[in-house]
Amino acid sequence: MKWNIDSERPVYIQLVEQIQAGIISGFFKPGDKLPSVRDFAANAGVNPNTMQRALTELERNGLLYTNRTSGRYITSDLKMIKELKRQSAKDITVGFLEKMKQLGFKEEESLEIVINIVKEMKK
Amino acid sequence: MLARLMKHELKATARLLVPLYIVLLCVSVINRFTLQSGMGEGIALFFRGLLIATQIISIIAILMVTLILMILRFYRNLLKDEGYLMFTLPVRVHHLITSKLVITVFWIIISLTMILGSLGIVSANPGMLDAIWRGFKEMSAELSAQFGGNGSLLLVEFTTLVFLGVILNILLIYVSIAVGQLFNKNRVVASFVSYIVIYTGLQFLITLVGGIFIHFNIGNIDLVYLSPQIIFPVGILFALAGCTIFYAVTNHILTKKLNLE
Amino acid sequence: MNPILECQSVTKKYTGFTALSDVNLTLERGRIIGLLGPNGSGKTTLLKLINNLLVPDSGKIYIAGINPGMETKKIISYLPEKTYLADWMSVEQAIKFFQDFYEDFDSKKANAMLADLEIDPKSKLKTLSKGTKEKVQLILVMSRQAELYCLDEPIGGVDPASRDYILNTIISNYRENATVLISTHLIADIEKILDEVVFLKQGSVFLHSSVDDVRIQEGKSIDSLFREVFKC
Lengths: 123, 261, 232
Prior knowledge:
Chain A is mainly alpha-helical and about 120 residues long.
């Protein structure tokens, strides 16, 4: 897993974001078992307590669950993952439109630009 | 822990001394045969001279290395960078001092034995051992006669005094090095100066006590015959006190006043 | 709680200047903590005091509730900035040494790490480069199951790949009971693995906070904050 952690923002928030992205993209498949906190932290190059905090947060919103004897797993709730994907897509789109607005484009203009670019990419 | 420290100390020092011992013993054995074969000519004479010189140099080297090692082991291993390792080991500070003291005494005894052995190898002849033993017995008898039957006691006391004297001198070096490290700059110079000061002080004390003693007993020649009972025991107590004081001061400085660079 | 380190009003003076002044600090277990400050701020003095290489002029120090001494040395693993191993020893002999004196030393782990870093155990220390010697010392220190690790500049003289390995080792070594105290200048490299930071400024504790709190409150990295606080 390729991590991209910067030191300016709280690390645990970035871990939550990137694990979520991993779940959405399918890197972490539903029902996958996660490494131990220590190994996962070492993999990300972060403090184990920080990783623990991130995982606890993800457990809180239901994306992970803990089986007391065997460890942590990605949820198998496909609906939840789909909802997460939808919400992420919405966040990215809202963010995109905001940025385009700052450049001076109205929503309809932004939409047209997107359609044109998709057409070009298909060629 | 003390045993482990001594083992390590032995390993660290043996690698320097043992090769010298081996060289000395080999040269001694060679010399025994070459010297017995009588005078040679030209090249043979030259080689004989070389071998004798080697033996003498080896003896001097062993004496010097034993002395220098005593100082360096204490200074470099405890008060330079290695001190960061030694003083963070889970051992008591006095273990560190004692381990070095014991091993130093050990090497002094071994070095002297090697030197005597080397001379013995070269010069020994059949009747020598008997002659030495007879001389020893005669001396004991003579001493017993002089000192009212306490000849053997005198010998024991003498040996103890010599032994304590060696330890006292080693501890004198240790305490000087320890005092030297109380200074922030020029620690080596400070150690030398401390050594001179303490040594002089010690000599002064001995002279003073000795002088007072003689002054009050100037007419009493019989006292000499009481050496085993009075003079030597007093000397031993004095040496023991000196050892204890030097050891305690060294321990105090290294425990409470340590300041590695 | 059962803090691993407690400093109460610790003061240490040298002739002419005060290295540490009335330092109060409590470190909990199971944390990786950065001890940060410019040269002369008192970092090394504090580490030496914890390791009983110095005695405080006033104040008290407790490691796991005990005064510094033989018992605390059993549970502290110290990596000083110096090369403190004797040059004539081989790496193998150094391992044997640690094994002899430290009950909590894991020689299997040490040998595994040496293999990872491609260091030949039979080589004599005096033949190794400075960087390699530092790696050997770090391996020895991290192969102990101590309750407090004090690392003084663990990644200073080491190449970037080895730096990652070392940081990875520190993370993997994590135990709930143990704390790692790292004193360093290379803040940017190390801040991601820290739980907390302690800023030492001119012998006093300027800041002691969790790392994420600093990021949230100040909106910047520890490295940026450091540059701000200690601007020349």
